[in-house]
Amino acid sequence: MGERKGVNKYYPPDFDPAKHGSLNRYHHSHPLRERARKLSQGILVIRFEMPYNIWCDGCKNHIGMGVRYNAEKKKVGNYYTTPIYRFRMKCHLCVNYIEMQTDPANCDYVIVSGAQRKEERWDMADNEQILTTEQEKKQKLETDAMFRLEHGTTDQSKLQKAIPTLSNIQEAQSAWKDDFALNSMLRRKFREKKKAIKEEEEKTLALQTKANLSIPLVPETEEDRKLAALLKYHSLDSYEDKQKLKRTEIFGRSWFPSTPGPGASNSKVNSVLKKLAISRKPMPSGSSITSSDLGIVRRKSRDGLENPQESGEAPELSGMKEEEEHPPGGSLSDRGYSPDVETQSGPSNTSVLNSSLVADYSDSESD
């Protein structure tokens, strides 16, 4: 910056180096230009950086550490031989002025007016930091020989305690001195890891292709291996074995269902069938079944049909058969007939079947 300003300077024709000495004296200006406009009052404008976080008293806004201002620097006193400077600056968010000054005794800055400090200080002794030596202690070290000897002994004991920690720090720092070796080792690990990841991706892709899976597979763990080792897999039965087993079940199945059919689910029908079975008398062996045994009452025909033996036809018998095959009221089981009664056909029963058949439901509870 100074070199740039040192070249291409214009010297007026009446400039005399012996008389003026410099261009600043010739122009009656200060080398610092506007920064020295209040130099007669002992004030120099500098670039000041906020040393810690504060709150402005004017606008109550937070001003972070490191914010820079054009501050007026002024000497206000001394701490022994160290000067104390005060800085005055204007807040960039309002018209309030903030004043701060140095504190050489505590190596810190103190707010004089215009702001409030955000308290974030800590004890240097608690953080194992190096404490500044007080002035009284300095004078005692210079004048008292015994105190200086004791102070030196204390420092030696502290050094002996700190040697292991310092050696560990030095070893850790020495391990990072060879940058080329560290870089080579790191790149080698990266290549090995990249190769392992590529092999794992190939295995996963092959398994997904084989099993026709579109879901992502998670990495295998030790628990998965243990669980898979405990499982036992059996081969599935072939198609022929399944068919053979199915045929065996069909052959061993009973032809007659053990439970009544869907038509007998009605409670009233079931009760009627039970009563008919109980009230029916056992049939003697060798005897033919008559209409009275079946609970059928004979009734004369009202139409006065001819004798079926004379006409050579049996209309009532054919009607009887059609009525038995397709009963108007449903199946025999629905009308109250017992399904296990068998009828015999023959010449002895022809006269019985000539007349109309009427079922007797006098003992039943059907509607």
Automatic annotation (TrEMBL):
* Cross-referenced InterPro entries: Saf4/Yju2 (IPR007590)
Could you tell me which residues belong to the region Disordered?
280-367
Q: Polar residues bias located where?
A: 341-357
Example of a GO biological process term: mRNA splicing, via spliceosome
| GO cellular component, as recorded | post-mRNA release spliceosomal complex; U2-type spliceosomal complex
Report the leader peptide range: none
Q: Which Pfam families match?
A: Saf4_Yju2
The cross-references to PANTHER family, in alphabetical order and at most eight, read: SPLICING FACTOR YJU2, SPLICING FACTOR YJU2B-RELATED
Provide the family line: Belongs to the CWC16 family.
* Function noted in UniProt: May be involved in mRNA splicing.
What is the name of this protein?
A: Probable splicing factor YJU2B
Task: Specify the species.
Answer: Phascolarctos cinereus (Koala)
Species lineage = Eukaryota, Metazoa, Chordata, Craniata, Vertebrata
